[in-house]
Amino acid sequence: MAEEILSQGEIDALLSAISKGEMDTEQFKVEETKRRVKVYDFKRALRFSKDQIRSLSRIHDNLARLLTTYFSAQLRTYIDIKVASVDQLPYEEFIRSIPKVTILNVFEMEPLEGRMIMEVNPVIAYAMMERMLGGQGRSYKSSGALTEIETRIISQLFERMSEHFKEAWSSIVDIEPSLDEFESNPQFLQMVSPNETVIVISLNTTIGDSTGMINICIPHVVLEPIISKLSVHYWMQTGRREQPKETADLLQKKLEKATLPLSAELGTSTISVEDFLSLQLDDVIELQQSIHSPLVIKVGDVPKFTAQPGTKGKKLAVQILEKIKGGEEEDE
To answer: Is this model's pTM higher than 0.85 or not?
Structure first.
């Protein structure tokens, strides 16, 4: 329950009334002992804790960054997407809050039950479509039904973003999102009962000069199997136990595929600038190394091996003789 904060004038008036006997201090004790009643709206049941709301906000902060990159690449223009709010409310209230004509993308969330809605404000959707058709990204259309071509263009754009949902949710659950339905009238879309609690994540989206909201609606029935994972305790346990092994395996795979520059150094020489400027065709530079001395093999700029030159088939080659010890080796 929110606490009521008194102004300085109200505090002075209260102290003055007590000092003059106009108000009995016993009255405060009586009121303090009275049972405090808090109004509860059964139509708007709160099923998600603040901790779980914060976890959902964290997941969709990551999703917002992924979608910013995705749409910027697809539309080749400035895109900015940020989480504006995360709220829980009845499904009926969500449907009433969105425009009568809008863009509704319904995603399956296998293996989770139920479906998720991604509502895109027409201002944003039409700006995206105009950009894809070669325009400057202005919202040229604000009402009216979509044509078949417009429907196809917009639905394909949002269908290809399902991989980013998968990546954003991967820290909690492995899902295979897929676009199941595309609709423009929210009255024709009844996924759950009107009083069912849903989570609505609002993403503030800017495309050029156009600004609007993208709302992601996730019913409670979808999140119910993984509700225990939406807690700080789970995130901390996952970070301590699972993440190090997964990270180590990933680093090992990346390192195994990394390429390294390998060079065989025939020798070195030092000459003056004057000699360097006067070099001509067929001039010979004497190296400070005997032809009987082994070559130095460098990995990057670090000497690692000694080798002897030769050929393999019709190609020049070197044969490794031994590993060079000291320097970098001693630091390991």
So the answer is: no
